[in-house]
Amino acid sequence: xxxxxxxxxxxxxxxxxxxxxxxxxxxxxxxxxxxxxxxxxxxxxxxxxxxxxxxxxxxxxxxxxxxxxxxxxxxxxxxxxxxxxxxxxxxxxxxxxxxxxxxxxxxxxxxxxxxxxxxxxxxxxxxxxxxxxxxxxxxxxxxxxxxxxxxxxxxxxxxxxxxxxxxxxxxxxxxxxxxxxxxxxxxxxxxxxxxxxxxxxxxxxxxxxxxxxxxxxxxxxxxxxxxxxxxxxxxxxxxxxxxxxxxxxxxxxxxxxxxxxxxxxxxxxxxxxxxxxxxxxxxxxxxxxxxxxxxxxxxxxxxxxxxxxxxxxxxxxxxxxxxxxxxxxxxxxxxxxxxxxxxxxxxxxxxxxxxxxxxxxxxxxxxxxxxxxxxxxxxxxxxxxxxxxxxxxxxxxxxxxxxxxxxxxxxxxxxxxxxxxxxxxxxxxxxxxxxxxxxxxxxxxxxxxxxxxxxxxxxxxxxxxxxxxxxxxxxxxxxxxxxxxxxxxxxxxxxxxxxxxxxxxxxxxxxxxxxxxxxxxxxxxxxxxxxxxxxxxxxxxxxxxxxxxxxxxxxxxxxxxxxxxxxxxxxxxxxxxxxxxxxxxxxxxxxxx
Length: 593
Hints:
The chain is of the alpha/beta class. Helix 11 runs antiparallel to helix 12 (461-474) and helix 15 runs antiparallel to helix 16 (579-592). It starts with a helix and ends with a helix.
């Protein structure tokens, strides 16, 4: 249990509200995890995979109506609408509580309430924070043990200190004698609600992913971004990797990318350049604070990977595949006759028969995917073969460079470097990708996702930009990370990718490394610094001079149109938008003329 009076009182109040049949305080032990998984097997939620092929691992299929984050049901309930901004769904906090409290009343009848104390970040780190999630989902409890540092050790560190209260229910109370279903949820009444002033999270109706694992997007980004702004640090949707040169010099790099832009692959990159090594600190979220030496230090607040399975293979991301070789949970993937998992893109050839994520017989000619496109694997980060030795260092790792990137078939070079911190914030503010045929909307239309934080910033994004600018002004410019923008997806006029990507991206990382070390030759263009001819190491790569020139070509007319589009986009943020970014845009327009 705990000596924390506030925690005990809050749990007591929530038990009275939700009326669970029993309350279980999670201790985080292996025995407890095994017991939770056994209960889930008995309920039909989990299926144990073949222990010879996938030791201590489980398959789970969700309700087909509950398969992804629900942004339309996600709310920022700040006291003032303007503090949530136009990029968030806003509701008055008192009105939202008046709506939800009757729904929560008795919502856990017939179920167990799991009390999950968890630490986001290494225990005892000055950058880490502690939350407590109350949930009636065993699936959530099992996943939270992999994704966070969870249990008694967290209560020991918490003591009498504050914590982030997180209430979650699947929203399906059981009547006496009613038989449960393998995946309880309430798709007609889903709410993922954040109270930024109170630092509190309520979630109802969904059992899936970021809707239910409240330490992830809800705490680690939406609430943490508010805390970071108030206290002078950064909570970001970023990977963290360590890059070591053949000479043994090491630098750490973070990167923010929208979906389908290669973020996880970059975090676990296997370089093709001889002697270079990439090690993984984190694949999704970075919390960063300035140290006493004036440098920016980052931790990965998570303890596991909750990755998209489809498209992941030994060819695209060997380290991710090896990370999930055991002790993992797979959700909404297909089952092989041998008792292992499969998903689209996992192997060059499709298996002749499977059981699909819908629990139906599946063959390649059936016309349906075997796994859901948002199928997931939950795997311990410590199992990654490329995990960085310092990934749990409570001090964090010192960041030398920040990468932004998007999927742009034209216009944006393979890489360019900002002129300074303020210009780097400008680059982050205009992160964008062009829609493909696989996405909703008009093909080729620009979708802007500033800092890759559009769905995850817990307050007014104009204020978020201002916070980044303020941090740069308050710290020594020489010690700030260098900022770059990458685009692995530029195409030729014939529609062919100009850059091979994957392990070859290590060549781009090498130039970033050199620029941070005071080397690496560059040319100055209107949009930033690009590698000078010969500065990008392409030895052994089959790429011609014309292709290289196109990769770094700055199309002035195209950028003039882009600048006009950016100006229209900036106007959507209203009067709180920082003037410094308008100044950067004006400077860009001047350089293009």
